[in-house]
From TrEMBL:
Pfam family, one: TetR_N
Record domain HTH tetR-type: where: 16-75
Organism listed in the record: Amycolatopsis plumensis
UniProt-recorded name of the protein: TetR/AcrR family transcriptional regulator
DNA-binding stretch(es), residue numbering of this chain: 38-57
PANTHER family from the UniProt entry: HTH-TYPE TRANSCRIPTIONAL REGULATOR BETI (PTHR30055:SF234), HTH-TYPE TRANSCRIPTIONAL REGULATOR RUTR (PTHR30055)
Keywords: DNA-binding, Transcription, Transcription regulation
Length: 194
């Protein structure tokens, strides 16, 4: 056993549960109050003290990065699971894009953070693309192979288009990003597959 492993005991079950509760609470608070929400608001929602948050995530940046990574991982894992459980690849793609829309809309508050001068946020965009690009490609390829969409679609282009359509979410009462994204995804369908 290395000296480092001996110095750092495994986290207790309640500590792991608290960390998970903090991330879920932070994600929900970031949606309603933005990423600059007071830590005490996150602590109250998680049912823990602020000291617990700072113990797990010493800086706000640590907390933001952990929430972002957790949600990216959940979205990355959803792609293959949807392909396995949905009746067809196009339906899996539709459901995954719907989850992607949820993810993008809730990340609108991160825009200012991601454009900040703090170097710790620089790798987030690359991480996002590295994890989600292949998942979207897998879904597009499966739908194309099944003859459900026009082949040759680019995952980056699709995700960028969805992101652009979601940029207006919440800014105008009559703007329905989800409806526009549905039109975009339906536009991938082959005319003979409709």
């Amino acid at each position: 056993m290395s000296e480092t492993a001996a110095a750092k005991p495994p986290r207790r079950a309640d500590a792991r549960r608290n960390a998970g509760n903090v991330l879920e609470a932070a994600a929900a608070v970031f949606v309603t109050s933005g990423v600059e929400a007071p830590i005490r608001e996150i602590a109250a929602r998680a049912g823990v003290g602020t000291a617990t948050i700072y113990r797990h995530y010493p800086t706000r940046a640590d907390l933001i990065l952990a929430v972002y990574r957790l949600q990216v991982e959940a979205l990355a894992e959803a792609g293959p699971a949807l392909l396995a459980s949905e009746p067809g690849p196009h339906q899996a793609l539709v459901k995954w894009i719907d989850r992607f829309v949820d993810f993008v809309i809730t990340k609108q508050g991160l825009a200012s953070v991601l454009q900040s001068d703090e170097a710790c946020y620089d790798p987030l965009h690359a991480y996002f693309l590295e994890r989600l690009g292949p998942v979207c490609t897998q879904l597009l390829d499966a739908a194309a192979a099944a003859g459900e969409i026009v082949p040759g679609q680019d995952a980056y282009e699709l995700m960028r288009g969805v992101g652009s359509l979601c940029a207006g979410a919440g800014t105008a009462a009559r703007y329905d990003a989800r409806h526009l994204v549905k039109l975009l995804v339906n536009g991938l369908r082959r005319s003979d597959a409709l």
